[in-house]
Amino acid sequence: MGLAFDEMKGHGGDIRPAYNELARWLAEVPPDVLDYRRREAELIFRRIGITFAVYGEADAQERLIPFDVIPRIMAATEWQLLEKGLTQRVKALNAFIGDVYNEREILRAGLVPEDLVFRNPAFRPEMNGQRVPHDIYVQIAGIDIVRVDADTFYVLEDNARTPSGVSYMLENREIMMRLFPELFSRHRIAPVENYPDELLATLKSVAPARTTREPNVVLLTPGVFNSAYYEHSFLADKLGVELVEGRDLFVKDEVVYMRTTQGPQRVDVIYRRIDDDFLDPLTFRPDSALGVPGLMAAYQAGNVTLANAVGTGIADDKAVYSFMPEIVKFYLGEEPILKNVPTWRCREEEHLAYVLDNLQDLVVKEVHGSGGYGMLIGPTASKVAIEQFRAKLKTAPKNFIAQPTLALSTSPTCVEQGVAPRHVDLRPFVLSGRNGVRIVPGGLTRVALKEGSLVVNSSQGGGTKDTWVLDR
């Protein structure tokens, strides 16, 4: 693993142009002011109740995600490159998912192994031959991006099911504007606060084709015990749509209705934050109390749009991810703008042999894992952990992929000792509707607050910071 690229100072130690104003400001501001504002931000977050829960912990109490008060800054030209690459990638993802459930041309061409799709736990046979409104499967994608030098960005993973974190992007901006107006006034920063309007326009645009009136959109949440419930209620409020649970909806004659005090109201688009398994007890898990009986029948009849579509989870699989360069070329006839991290598929004998020989240098991940769990970071793992992983790999190689340990770029971060570089990634949110692809400039920057740590996930002690894309 090489030396990490410093987004403020580059490799040479000279301040990069996008960071000039911030560097000047940091030199002027007394350290205790930064610390005071950091504590102030924490108080605001606590007061408005921005929390998340970590499942499976003995004390799964609500926690604050630590917020870093120093923004991450990107030049307009850097963002333009990302925007092009993200648009291309999400178009390819949509084409791939549509193809897998319909013509299956990519499987017939032998570019993606059939068993990788058909044996995938996220593959939904119920979607076979099912067209979705306007052929858009992934209306909201969260694509995780890492940077390794001035010009090179890699996609770390694709989140095509129910990506979360956008509420933090919006709240982080609001708090920065409130706490640091003087720093704001020294920059021209592209806005993110229009995201709810863009999201609502996208959701309305994918209403079933036969909808003749203003589409009725609702946000379906599993309820208050879900770890992302804060985000669900925040977004419903910002969108101006009803936040509903399964029990608030019912299906009659293959049409979805919402119970209201004025009587039943027809629903056209459901922005669902519930996994496929729990959506409809008549189709998926019969024990689900979170879903709506008959929802899939209404969906298959074309009377309601689910965003994102059922079965999009096949694109989140880390083994499928390794085929994304081929997927982009196959559907779009273009070279991928954003690179994939080189990936060894342990299901293939040669790849497995290489991984077993080099475990101490690699990151090994479960193909269906998320949140930074169930992975081995070779360079920092103990000998015991490496041997335990070796045994897992030999037993079930298909469940794992391996990647080199990337030197994620660093961004200046406010820590107890002052300002220091910490590793970051970025999750931009990509909206796809009948009106094309829209991306608000920026996204959620996650930061590994522990010195040297590469794990940015909030469930593993990471924090977030505001992402400023400079307007030209």
Model description:
With about 475 residues, the chain is of the alpha+beta class. It has two domains: about 15-210 and about 305-340 and about 405-470, no CATH class; about 345-405, Dna Ligase, domain 1 (2-Layer Sandwich). Helices cover about 30% and strands about 20% of the residues. The protein contains 14 helices and 23 strands. The protein has helices at about 20-30, 30-50, 75-100, 105-110, 115-120, 165-180, 180-185, 195-205, 230-240, 295-300, 320, 325-330, 350-355, 385-395; strands spanning about 50-55, 60-65, 65-75, 140-145, 155-160, 215-220, 240-245, 250, 255-260, 265, 270, 305, 340, 345, 360-365, 375, 400-405, 410-415, 420-425, 430-435, 435-440, 445, 465-470. The strands form six sheets. Strands 3-23-22-19-18 form a five-stranded mixed sheet. A hairpin with a 2-residue loop joins strand 18 (about 410-415) and strand 19 (about 420-425). Helix 3 packs across helix 12. The chain is globular. The mean pLDDT is about 90. This is Circularly permuted type 2 ATP-grasp protein. InterPro entries: ATP-dep_Glu-Cys_Ligase-2 (IPR051680), CP_ATPgrasp_2 (IPR025841), UCP005522 (IPR016450). It comes from Pseudolabrys taiwanensis.
